[in-house]
Design goal:
By secondary structure, the chain is mainly α. It is built from six helices and three strands; from the N terminus they run H-H-E-H-H-E-E-H-H. The protein has a three-stranded antiparallel sheet with strand order 1-3-2. It is globular and about 55 Å long.
């Protein structure tokens, strides 16, 4: 097996593990929300208020799909639409307090699972993993796959997606 193929297979396998962690974290906080809806909340938490077209662009969906997502999240009391004070014809979408609290809870649960996984590695394994993961995160940034930088401070995190 070629090295690139092996790397791809390992990343795909760990991706499934991480999606499972995210699903468990979400189910523990709110069983009615989907992972896609959570991703929308996380994008709004990361980026702040966005116009619908901007939200759709970051999510990689068309505006009508983003509008339906916002409709559901607004109905659940997690986001709200506001008229843009700088241009009254535009509406922005922002997180409400309940949405912020849900993102914090889910991310806290997810972080705890990731920390437990990392704790199973030896110091040497952890040290060897960091440069490769930073390189992978940098490549994702270069490809425009993330909404904000992920290779800076330890507090940075990828948007959900």
């Amino acid at each position: 097996m070629e090295e690139a193929e092996e790397i791809t297979l390992v990343i795909m396998a760990i991706s499934r593990v991480l999606v499972g962690m995210s699903a468990r974290a979400l189910a523990g906080a709110d069983e009615s929300l989907t992972l896609t809806q959570l991703r929308t909340l996380v994008v709004l938490e990361d980026c702040g208020p966005l116009k619908l077209v901007g939200l759709a662009r970051v999510l990689g969906v068309n505006p009508s799909t983003a509008m339906r997502m916002v409709d559901r999240l607004e109905g659940a009391g997690l986001v709200e639409r506001r008229v843009n004070p700088e241009n009254r014809r535009e509406v922005t979408v922002r997180l409400r307090e309940d949405g912020e609290a849900l993102v914090r809870e889910v991310m806290g649960r997810r972080r705890a699972e990731v920390e437990a996984l990392v704790a199973r590695l030896t110091d040497e394994e952890r040290a060897g993993l960091v440069p490769g993961l930073r390189a992978l995160a940098g490549a994702a940034e270069e490809m425009g796959l993330v909404g904000r930088p992920v290779t800076g401070d330890a507090g940075d995190r990828l948007p959900f997606g």
